[in-house]
Amino acid sequence: QFPFGRRLPCDIYWHGVSFHDNDIFSGQVNKFPGMTEMVRKITLSRAVRTMQDLFPLEYNFYPRSWILPEEFPLFVAEVRMMKDSDPSWKPTFIVKPDGGCQGDGIYLIKDPSDIRLTGSVQSRPAVVQEYICKPLLVDKLKFDIRLYVLLKSLEPLEIYIAKDGLSRFCTEPYQEPTLKNLHQVFMHLTNYSLNIHSGNFIHSDSVNTGSKRTFSSILCRLSSRGADVKKLWSDIISLVIKTIIALTPELKVYYQSDIPAGKPGPTCFQILGFDILLMKNLKPMLLEVNANPSMRIEHEQELSPGVFENVPSPVDEEVKVAVIRDTLRLVDPQKKKK
């Protein structure tokens, strides 16, 4: 560690936020140039949609999406057309600001006319997606999965998926969206940073209970109910690989412009956070990809209004320590020297 700045070459550079080439001529950097831009909601939607046009059956794990404001007329027209062909179709849509994180600015609508076009979308582009109305519930609650994926290299493409991840739960029992409950974020949005503020949020010392659990504990429950967990894993692996394949062409362009071939430079690796939702039929759907997933292993507990303290979180520790340990083993610079 270099708390006061780096003077010597070293094996692994671990940057906080994004790749920046501060005259790093050797070693390995834990970020790819351009990754932060590539996984923003609009860029990711565009990349996946390009593949959906080419391989519709292979890329059916990403909800139908439109980019606002530019595709607003298209969104209105397509929804009207689908409603005309199937009058019983009563969709819900979720609007996500492009640069938003931690659930910031997300809201649900029933009709395109409900989009808040008052300047916010003009200055703040967004993606609107078909909302997945039939999620798998555990204890009557909706949850999503955060899986950690190590992109070890682009050429050749080398991807590792951590065997365990986090399941992050809503804090109010799920009901299908209606005009009355659309605004109930604790029922519809799984974001940890939103639900932590709910009175029903349960901090647990066990990895099997509470509002944040290990993904493996969910798999155990599903398996005991007779679900085909092997197939679920292979579907998830396929989703991860195909998503990264969709991002790879542009990532290579960024890479070559920052680290041209022949110029000495670092090699890159990166831990990505994949957010996945399971549908009732156990089909995994990609919600988003995070270029900078939190590696904190403690959580904030509110002692009194506005007063927080940091408490160790056994669930985060169990999953994230393993992710970082195995990442360092996989990129181990000593291996090559032996």
Automatic annotation (TrEMBL):
One annotated Gene Ontology cellular component of this protein: ciliary basal body
SUPFAM superfamilies named among the record's database cross-references: Glutathione synthetase ATP-binding domain-like (SSF56059)
One of the record's GO molecular function terms: tubulin-glutamic acid ligase activity
Cited InterPro entries: TTL/TTLL_fam
This protein's UniProt keywords: ATP-binding, Ligase, Nucleotide-binding
Keyword Cell inner membrane part of the UniProt annotation: no
Biological process according to GO: microtubule cytoskeleton organization
Transmembrane segments: none
Key word Signal present: no
Protein name (database record): Tubulin polyglutamylase TTLL11
Protein source organism: Apaloderma vittatum
